[in-house]
Write a structure and sequence with these properties.
Layout: H1 8-27, H2 29-36, H3 47-77
């Protein structure tokens, strides 16, 4: 049987890309300006507020994913 490598490096790479996407989305004012230019609310929430909520949710989710990945790696190493 062929032994497959651990999927942890792939997961770590995905989380790193997710962090990079978070940084671009959070620090890119043109995305905010594009969202702010719209007048129609999204789900009854002003567009600018929806943008900030979506970005904060994405960043929080990436931090939780990184924490869970790190915790599972510590458990498998022990």
């Amino acid at each position: 049987m062929s032994k497959q490598g651990s999927p942890a490096p792939l997961r770590r790479g995905i989380v790193k890309l997710w962090f990079a996407l978070d940084a671009v989305v959070a620090l890119a004012p043109p995305l905010y300006w594009a969202a702010d230019g719209r007048t129609a609310p999204i789900a009854e929430i002003p567009t600018a507020l929806f943008y900030f909520l979506a970005v904060s949710f994405c960043i929080t989710a990436s931090l939780i994913a990184a924490y869970l990945l790190d915790t599972s790696d510590e458990g498998s190493a022990a």
